[in-house]
Design a protein that fits this description.
Blueprint: E1 3-7, E2 13-14, E3 23-32, E4 42-59, E5 62-69, E6 71-76, E7 79-84, E8 87-91, E9 97-100, E10 107-114, E11 127-129, E12 152-154, E13 170-179, E14 189-205, E15 209-217, E16 219-223, E17 226-230, E18 234-238, E19 244-247, E20 254-261, E21 271-272, H1 273-283
Antiparallel strand pairs: 1-18, 2-3, 3-4, 4-9, 4-10, 4-11, 5-8, 5-10, 6-7, 6-9, 8-12, 13-14, 14-19, 14-20, 14-21, 15-18, 15-20, 16-17, 16-19
């Protein structure tokens, strides 16, 4: 029942071996992989310098992209889409795609992949490069606001509903879904979540994995008897069955990008320990 926590530092970024000879100005920080105990996800932050790109490729896993800095252009199966900060897009399994940065600033974007990519040099090749895709003329480039745009979106914090009052087990939480089955994803849910100051989610576990990339604010993350301070530029992860909790006890709200993989069940998606203790006390002989 593993968990993980780390600060995202520049030393974590490197050019992935798969892209050797097929990219320029490209680096990636592999944040949650099999090395952390995960079996369902790859969670990365990719970086493209101005003028950087990588060649058209195909994966046997789906990829969710969320732009956190700068601007990129995504060529998804021959359609060019411009993505700026807060924009997101899904690359379904088996879909040819390429990415480039024609801006003047570096770009960084989350890559959430599932099923878990095979990163080892001796593993089965789950990705491959193809012939180059044709890029659209500037006048034909789509954005997340394009009328017929599919599997595209934009997030800003104004989209978060008011926090729920909740109860003694969970309170102060608000959530905006970004990618799920209705959006087109099959192997993960991706959403933005915020807990208001004083909010909490008491100890619980799931039959799926979760990762939390902190956007702003601070909170305490407790997992398997250990406590960590979530701050912008940190990421945490809870494996299947790993007990974990969140407490906004540091004088501020906390907002993070969260992913669940595989997609959770419709009902009973977790076991809230304190709630089950109440049930046990009321029913036990």
């Amino acid at each position: 029942m593993p968990h993980a926590f780390r600060k995202i530092e520049d030393s974590l970024f490197a050019m992935p071996g798969f892209f050797d000879g097929h990219s320029k100005g490209f680096r990636r920080a592999d944040l949650i992989t099999r090395a952390d105990g995960s079996v369902h996800m790859g969670f990365f932050i990719a970086e493209l310098q101005p003028g950087g790109d990588f060649d058209a490729c195909v994966h046997s896993y789906e990829k969710g992209i969320f732009v956190s800095e700068g601007e990129i252009e995504l060529n998804r199966d021959g359609k060019t889409i411009r993505l700026a900060r807060g924009d997101y897009a899904l690359v379904p399994i088996g879909t040819p795609y390429a990415i480039r940065n024609r801006g003047k600033e570096r770009a960084r974007f989350v890559e959430k992949c599932a099923p878990q990519p095979k990163l080892g040099p001796d593993e089965w090749q789950d990705s491959f490069f193809i012939r180059q895709l044709a890029w659209a003329n500037d006048s034909e480039i789509e954005t997340v606001k394009s009328p017929l745009g599919r599997m595209l979106g934009h997030f800003d914090k104004s989209q978060l509903p008011p926090p729920a009052k909740g109860d003694k087990h969970r309170s102060g939480q608000t959530k905006k879904m970004l990618m799920d089955q209705m959006f087109g994803a099959e192997h993960f849910d991706l959403f933005m979540i915020e807990f208001s100051e004083g909010g909490q989610s008491t100890m619980h576990d799931h039959n799926f994995e979760e990762a939390y990339l902190v956007i702003d604010g601070e909170a305490t993350y407790e997992a398997e008897g250990k406590k960590y301070v979530l701050t912008p530029g940190t990421i945490a992860w809870s494996g299947v069955g790993a007990p974990h909790a969140f407490y906004c006890d540091r004088g501020t709200a906390c907002c993070w990008l969260e992913v669940m993989s595989p997609q959770p069940p419709v009902q009973n998606l977790g076991r809230r320990y304190s709630a089950w203790e109440d049930i046990r006390k009321s029913l036990e002989i």
